[in-house]
Amino acid sequence: MSSEQFKEPYNIYYFLGFILALLIPTAPATLTLLKHAGILSVGW
Predict the structure, then answer these.
(1) pLDDT digits (tens, 9 = 90+) for 13-32
(2) Per-position DSSP letters for 12-44, written without gaps between them
């Protein structure tokens, strides 16, 4: 039972780390899109 209690949080942290690893490379592109969208919305 102790191994299961230790395994569950590890899988959760591993999953969150994997998602962050996927989001980090797309963060600059997302920020630039938001900036361009903001500039376009202000321009219009």
Answers:
(1) 889 999 989 888 888 888 88
(2) HHHHHHHHHHHHHHHHHHHHHHHHHHHHHHHH-
Three-state DSSP class for 10?
A: helix
| CA atoms of 6 and 12, how far apart (whole Å) | 11
* Residue 9 identity (one-letter amino acid): P
Tokens standing for residue 6: 């230790």
Put simply, whether the predicted model's pTM sits higher than 0.85 gets the answer no
